[in-house]
Amino acid sequence: MDEKQAQKLILKIAPSEWKNESRDKREIGVIKELGADILVLAKGKKTGVIERIEGFDIYRVSTRPLGNHIPNTINRIISIFTWAWQARKISPDIISGHDIFGVFIGYLSSVFVSKEKRPKLVYDSHEFEIGRNIKRNKLQILAITYLEHFLIKRCEFCIVVNDSIANEVQRIHKLNKRPIVVRNIPETWQIDAEVCKKKRQDLLKKLNGTVKILLMYHGVVGEERGIETLLDVASNIKDVGIIILGNCDSKSYKGQLLNKAKSLKILDRVLFQNAVPIKDLWKYVGAIDVSMVLIAPTSKSYYYALPNKLFESIQALTPVIASDLPEMRKIIAAYNIGFLNAPSDINGIVKCVDIMKNNKTQYDLFKKNLISAKKELCWENEKKILIKAYEKII
Question: Which residue, among 391, 339, 380, 338, has the nearest Cα to 26 in the 3D structure?
C-alpha cells in the first residue's frame, strides 16, 4: 500500500459511550487492516478528552454543550451541530456513521466543504432504523424515513445486518444498489473446555443444588427480549437453572424480574450476572447447556432480528432455542444447531428444553453440527465483504 493511502483518515461517529461497541470495533478493525488511520468521535462528559481503547483513539464530545441546567432535548439538538463542528475540524477523508444520527452529523460537517475536500460517507445501520423498537408517532416515522432516504443517497454505501433488512431498505428507498450485508459475527473463539467446565461448576454452586441443566440469556436485560418467557419456562421444569447475563435497562425492570421469579417460586434457580468483557464472554456461553434467544417480534426490527448472541452461541458450540423468525430460522435450520419455536408458546419451549435435557442423541447431533457452523460463521469470513467495499473508497 502506498504512502498516500496509508495516510487516509477515517472518522467513526458514534453517539454513544463507545465501550461495548463490538460491531464498530470489527468494522474499523478492517479499515485499520487496509492501512488507514482511525479516529472515533464518541460521547463523553467533556469535549476534547482523548482515550485509547483497544488500540483505537476515542475523541470524546459532550452531548450537553449548554450545561446540565438546560433541558436535555435542547442540549441534544444543539449537540448535533457541535458534534458536526468537531468532525469538520478533524477533516477526515471518510466518515462512517454508527447509525442514522452519526451519518447525519457527518453530512452536516461536510456542508459547504469543496467537493475535492468533502469526506465520503458510509452508513453503518446497526438496526432496521425505520422499524426500530422505540416509540415513534407517524410524523416521526415519516421524518426518519425521509432523512434516511436523503442520507443514503449521499453515501458511498450502506451496511446492514441481514438480507431481510437489505431487501426492505432497498425497496423503501428504491435503491439501484442493494445495501451491503455484514452480519454481527464475532471472530473465531478459542474455547478451553476445562475453563468452561470450571465456570459451569461455579454457576451451579450459586444455584439450587437440584439444577441439572443451565439455560442462559445474555445481552442487554430489557423488555421484549424473552427473559420473562424464560422464567415461565423454568417454572415448568423443576431441575432447570436460569442465568441472566447482562446489565439491566433499569433497576425497576430487574425488580420486576425478581418479583416474577419469586412469585413463580424459582428464585433459587435464577442467577443474575453483570455483563462481562467480550474477551471473557466465551467462558459463560460455553459453560451453559442451551442458549436462549427468544426475542418477541414486537417491531419490524425485532422481526428481522439476527442478534450477536446467536453467533456467539455458535462460536461457543452451545445449542440454541430461538424464536421462529425469518433470519434466525435461516441459520438454525441450515445448520441444524437447535430448535425454533414461537416466542410466546411456553409449552412448546418447555418441550424443546425437555428434549435438550433428555435426548442425548439429539443434543449431541446439535453439538456436532455446531463445529461446522463455527468454522463458517466467523468474522474472518464475514469481513471479506467489508474489505471489498472499503477497498474501493480508501
Answer: 380
- DSSP H stretches of helix in the chain: 3-6, 22-33, 72-90, 100-109, 138-152, 163-173, 193-205, 227-235, 251-263, 281-285, 300-303, 308-315, 326-335, 346-358, 360-376, 379-391
Looking at the chain, the domain(s) classified CATH 3.40.50.2000 span 3-185+379-391, 193-376
> What's the rounded Cα separation, in Å, for the pair 216 and 351?
17
Cα gap 171→168, rounded to integer Å: 5
CATH no., domain 3-185+379-391? 3.40.50.2000
Residue 233 is predicted with a pLDDT of: 95
Sheet of strand 240-245: strand arrangement: 270-273, 240-245, 213-218, 290-293, 320-323, 338-341
Cell of residue 72, nine digits:
436535555
Cβ neighbours for 322, distance < 8 A, ≥ 6 positions apart = 292, 293, 294, 295, 310, 328, 332, 338, 339, 340, 341
Please give the grid coordinates belonging to residue 114. Answer: 469543496
Per-residue confidence (pLDDT) for residue 3, from 0 to 100: 46
* Rounded CA separation 208/270 (Å): 9
In this structure, what DSSP letter does residue 177 have?
S
pLDDT of amino acid 54: 87
Q: For residue 53, what are the contacts with CB-CB under 8 A and spacing of at least 6?
A: 18, 19
Give pLDDT, residue 6.
52
The pTM of this model reads 0.91
pLDDT of residue 5: 46
- Splitting the chain (394 residues) into consecutive groups of 10 residues, what average pLDDT does each group show? 64 89 91 95 93 93 90 90 96 95 96 93 93 85 95 96 96 96 96 96 90 94 91 94 91 92 95 92 97 94 94 98 97 97 96 96 98 97 96 93
Please, which residues bridge with residue 38 across strands? 10
Residues in the chain: 394
Assess if CATH 3.20.20.10 describes domain 193-376: no
What span, in angstroms and rounded, lies between the C-alpha atoms of 42 and 17? 6
